[in-house]
Every structure is written in C-alpha cells, then in structure tokens.
Specification:
350 residues; alpha/beta; Rossmann fold; 6-stranded parallel β-sheet; 37% helix; globular
C-alpha cells in the first residue's frame, strides 16, 4: 500500500468522466475521502452535461469540462495549475488517464488494467483483489481504489446527493404545489437500451394501479425520450403529470418529495436512491450485482432470471425481443412498491 502522509495532503483530484449513474456512484468515494482528509480541498472533474447532478454536494468542488479538444486542453492546464498532491482516476479511459497524468499530482492512482497504465505511479492490481471477491458493485469498485491508497472504506459509504433550495423552489413552481405537496409516485419510464426498457403500456398500467391506491403519478424523462411519456399518457386512463425538461437538480428535488420512485435501471434511479427515496428498479439485461441501488433507503430490484443475464444490452442476442425486461409484470412491481413503502414505515399500498 502506498505511503501517503494524509494529514499533509492539501489538494485531491478525482476524475470521473462518465454518465449520471456513474457519477452518483462515485459519491461514496468522495465521502470516504472527505472523512480521511478533512483539511484538504477535493476537486472532482465531470463532463459538463452531467456536472449538475453534484450541485450543492458539500465539501467537494466540481470542475466542469466541455466536449471539445480545446476544452480538454484548457482543463488539463487548469488541473496542472492546481498542484494536486493526490489524484484518482475512477474511469480508466484514454481521456481520463491523460488528464490524471496532466494534473502532475505526486500520487496518481489507477487500476492496473487501465489504458496507458504507465502514466500512473500507483496501480491497484484489481478491485477484486482488494475486496477478495469477484462479484462487486460499481461503488465498491471505486472504493477499492480509495482503500488501496490508505483511505478507510470498510464502512462502505452509501450514495448521497444534495437537494438545493433553488431546485426545490423551482420544481415546486414547475410542477405545482398541489402535486409536489401531495403523496405521489415518481416514474422514470425510459433508459439507454431497449433491453433495459419496460414497456410504456406497463408503465401506464402501473400508473393506473398507483392512482387507484391513492397516489398521484409524475413521470420524467429527457426531452429526447419524451415520446415514452406521450405513449404512457395516451394509454393510461388516469392523469399523469409529465416533464421532459427538468434539470438534474430539479429531478433530485422532485425525487426527494416522492413517496416512492419506480423506474428502469438508469442514472435517475440512482439519483432517487441517493436522496433516500424508497426505490423500485426494474431490471432486464443489466448486471444486478453491479448496478443495483447503493443506499440504506428501502429499495428493491424487480427482475426475472434468465441464463443470458447479464449481457452487453445493445440488443437481445438470445431471444430477439428483450424477454428479460418484458417478462416483468405490473403485479411484481406493485408488490415491490408495497414492500419498500412498508419498510419505510409509511402507509403501504393496500
């Protein structure tokens, strides 16, 4: 294990150039770092489109990078000027490796299987070696690099996000206090791949059952995925309030007010879990061990096991029709929602 004089560390860089879910799942590592080095400045480098998810996160500075080559070079110069003592790359791609090296940090941590690993001076053989087991959650994989550096991680911090006052005020105005102030379920019916996409018809049927049990229903997606919302509203026989232009901080704020979150495996699901909302996630092709919610809040994953799971998810090679996700029933999801609400000591859906 590398010998770092942690009380003398002044600045720490964390590089995380990935998606919403990956960013949320990096927060346990940020929490562990903050506990280990309360005197240090901690920066995390994020891409511009995902950076707002950490808005208001205490004790960490967010450095935002654009997508262009000029943006990356400018970011590299800025990182160099910060004179970091320690840098962690929680991603492993070429760009993140270059930026970790360009930071000039005295201690640069990565995994041995990263590209251009010679640009690091501390390499962890593998997260599996650190934990002594192969089946790991994404959060555990990232925490392993912290643990290898000497940061205590055995308490396995959970994900965390902050609800900002501005976002809460904004979403209350946008959604209407009559909705945000009432008991409602928050649905996220879209995701990146068809093999992870529960059908719009089943989400519409789910909304009908939730409304019959006394909950209002709000559904969110990105603008690019708004067709899913339109399909839900067309099929459902109950009112569904839908939004496709909320900011990430607004979605976090909205999730914090929901009685329950129900959605596909996605970054939005990790956001809801990180804010402590009872969460139900519907799984298809994804690796359930690796991507399930990492939270102490009540949560369940709903799935039907198939021998071909997990798979890359780009298309269904085994059946051609994403049978894993489509086989999950509305009844299974409602039963899971009942259990997480009961576990949260709230009134369970009868």
């Amino acid at each position: 294990m590398p010998a770092i004089d942690w009380p003398q560390v002044r600045r720490i860089l964390v590089v995380k150039l990935r998606s919403i879910g990956d960013t949320v799942l990096s927060t346990p590592s940020l929490i562990a770092l903050r506990h280990q080095a309360p005197q240090a400045e901690i920066d995390i480098l994020l891409e511009d489109w995902v950076a707002p998810v950490l808005e208001g996160f205490e004790g960490v500075n967010v450095i935002i990078m654009g997508a262009g080559v000029t943006d990356r070079l400018s970011t590299a110069r800025h990182l160099r000027s910060r004179h970091y003592d320690v840098a962690f790359n929680l991603h492993g791609g070429t760009t993140s490796t270059f930026l970790t090296w360009a930071s000039g940090a005295k201690h640069r941590f990565g995994n041995a299987d990263y590209q251009y690993s010679f640009l690091y001076n501390h390499l962890l053989s593998s997260p599996a070696d650190f934990w002594g087991r192969k089946q790991l959650h994404s959060a555990e994989q990232q925490l392993a690099l912290m643990g290898y550096s000497g940061v205590p991680v055995d308490d396995l911090p959970k994900t965390h996000l902050t609800v900002t006052d501005d976002a809460l005020t904004s979403v209350s105005t946008t959604c209407g206090s009559g909705w945000v102030g009432d008991d409602f379920a928050l649905l996220h019916p879209s995701t990146a791949f068809e093999t992870k996409q529960w059908s719009s018809e089943k989400f519409a049927n789910l909304a009908e059952v939730l409304v019959s049990k006394g909950l209002k229903v709000i559904a969110v997606t990105s603008k690019a995925e708004s067709g899913v919302l339109e399909d839900m509203k067309r099929i459902a026989t109950v009112p569904i309030k839908t939004f496709d232009r909320l900011t990430l901080p607004e979605i976090t704020a909205l999730a914090s007010k929901a009685r329950v979150f129900i959605g596909n495996d996605s970054g939005i699901a990790h956001m809801a879990a990180a804010i402590g909302t009872p969460t139900v996630v519907i799984f298809g092709s994804s690796n359930r061990t690796h991507w399930r919610p990492w939270t102490d809040a009540p949560n369940e994953i709903v799935y039907n096991p198939f021998d071909c799971q997990p798979c890359p998810g780009y298309k269904c090679e085994a059946f051609g029709d994403s049978r894993c996700i489509h086989s999950v029933s509305v009844e299974q999801v409602i039963a899971a929602a009942d259990r997480v609400l009961g576990a949260a000591r709230l009134t369970a859906i009868p």
